[in-house]
Structures are given as structure tokens and as C-alpha cells.
Amino acid sequence: MNLEQFNKYLAGAVKVSASDIHFKPGGPAAFRVKGQLLPTTGASLTPEDTENICRHIIRDQEVAGNLTALRDYDTSYVLRGQARFRVNIYRQKGVLSLVLRTIPDEVPSFEELLLPPQVEDFAKYEQGLVLITGATGTGKSSTLAALIGYINEHKSCHIITIEDPIEFVHMDRRSSVSQREVGADTMDFNRALRAALRQDPDVILVGEMRDLETIDIALKAAETGHMVFSTVHTPDVAKTIGRLIGVFPPEEQAMVRIRLAENLKGIMSQRLVPRSDDGGMIVATEIMKMTGMVEDAIRNPSLTATIKDIIERGREQYGMMSFDQSLTDLYKGGLITLKIAKRFSSNPSDFERNLHFE
Q: Which parts of the chain fold into alpha helices (H)?
């Protein structure tokens, strides 16, 4: 497959609003449209096709020249005038395959993403740590982009993003935005995060909290007066807190609980659920904000399991929201069916019973 043919596939994907494009030998390219992965009418791809695509899009010539050693690789690709793509190259059954995620040219707003209005509060904090969590493909990067976009439009500050790869491109508005890509601009998240502390930042975005060292440095950045945003691959708020604490050795976990209680400002967990109206997807959210009760629950291991109940009780006063409350709103708004709401709820029986008491 030559570059012109590859770009035609991408242009076709953009035209039908595909969220992802799959290239795997043995079958035709496939587009994910409204949550469904659909094969195209093109010819089956060969290993040579996917290798040629890799050579087209990998900017590091040393890597592109030694594809036989490639196992996993992240990069980005620009179809000029149409879209950007986040690219993951991987090897399966001994041959190279690719998945490209479409990234819109424009930074999305909270309203365009249909996020609850209280998410805007996260963009107004001056220091601390805010986490966006969820499984792969649940829109975490889009939410982070909307947060950075809001800050860029409303504050005069220095924003540093550390991404792997860069997805949404932020032009300077009221803020100065420095975007660094792992591999191209810096060796890794940890090195870039340490360096960011010497670059006069007000806001730091870390694409993903992957390990103990990254979490520790991010906490130090929050402790020293910076506003830090990041993501964690966890399904809900309680498991996010457990993951952050659990990566540290047992003898350090009591102190980590204190550090989180003092610096964590909020967590939003996301799940994409099928819409009832057009076959697309909509985000359901669980939102935790730091309150005295949440702080106590993080500090005290015996109370951590109560965080879900604290979230549910804190909706009216603090703007917190559980997944079941979010699903209830979507169902009552006619955006999802009862069947889907129950399927994605934490406890389907409790969810349906609680509907009758509201």
C-alpha cells in the first residue's frame, strides 16, 4: 500500500466519522463507526501493506529502518487539512498491525463532549491533582483536552503537556502552551515531568500515570503549588485511589494516603455507553471532589470503602455524582435505554429499585 492509498483510507474514515481505523493483514481495513467495527470493501491487506504503512508514518528513521525488531510503537500522523491520528503499531502472529484513533482538529468543549457542568470546576483549581480515569477508548484524552482548552481560554499562565503521543494541538490563547511528546521531545514521562518543574509551569498535564515514579513526581508537583492533570486506567474512583496507594511499598502507603488526602482535588471516571437515539456513544461519569469526609476516607484504610456512598450523598451539596446517578440522568433524559442503564450500572437490581424512589 502506497502513501496515496493509505491517505485515501484515512480520508474515507474521516468522511464517515470513524473513531478508529484498523489495518491488519489477512482482511480489509476496518472503521469503527458509532461503536461498531465495520470492514471496508477494500482488498485484504498483506504483511507488506502494513509494513509499508509503518514506513510512511514512523518519523524516527532508525525505527522505520529496522521494522523486524518492532513489537509495539506509539506515534501520531497528520492528514493535512483533515485530521490528526493517534497511532499504535503492534505485532500479532508475527506481522505488524496498526490502529489509528481519529483526533479532531478543534479542541473540544465540555458542552460538545456532553460532560456534566461540574467538570468545569476542575479547570478552576489553582493547585493540586485532578485525575481522569477509565478504560482505554472512553474519552479520557478528549476530557483532558477540554480542561486544558478551558484554562487556555480563561487564564494567563504557562501550561506544559507531556504526551505519548501529542493528540490535540493547543494554540496559545490567553496562556502559553508547551507540548512535549515522549520519544520526539523527551525520553520518558518521568524525565519530562522532573524537567517541567524547572520550566516555570502553572499547569502540568501528564498523559498517563503509569508507575510509582510518575505518581510520586506528580504528587510532588502538586505539593509545590502546581496544578497537575493526568489519567489512570482504572474503572471508578475507589479503584483509582486503591491503585495509586497500591503501587507504593507497604511501608510508604500510610504517607501516600496523607499526600493524596492533602493534594488530590478530584477524580472523574468515565464509561462510554450506547445512545438510544442515533447509535452513537455518550459518556457516563462518576465525579468525586475533595471534601472533609473524602479526605478522612482516604487517610483511614478502614473508611476507604465508604467513598462510593460519600459520592452519592454529596451530589446536591458538592456536585459529586456516582455512575448510577449519571446513568439515571441519561435514562430520564431519553439518551439511553433502561436496558443499557442497567447493563452499565454498578448493581442492576439496586439501580432499578432506586429509580422508583426518586
A: 3-15, 47-57, 61-64, 140-154, 189-196, 212-223, 237-246, 253-263, 292-299, 307-313, 315-318, 323-332, 338-344, 348-355
Q: How far is CA 249 from the centre of its chain?
A: 27
Q: What is the CATH number of the domain that holds 253?
A: 3.40.50.300
Length of the chain measured in residues: 358
pTM above 0.90, yes or no: no
239-298 tens-digit pLDDT: 999 999 999 999 999 999 999 999 999 999 999 999 998 768 899 999 999 999 999 999
**Position 82 confidence tier, pLDDT thresholds 50, 70, 90:** confident
> Could you please report the per-residue DSSP string of 6-34?
HHHHHHHHHHTT-SEEEE-TTS--EEEET
Same domain, 136 and 85: no
Rounded to whole angstroms, the Cα distance separating 140 from 234 reads: 11
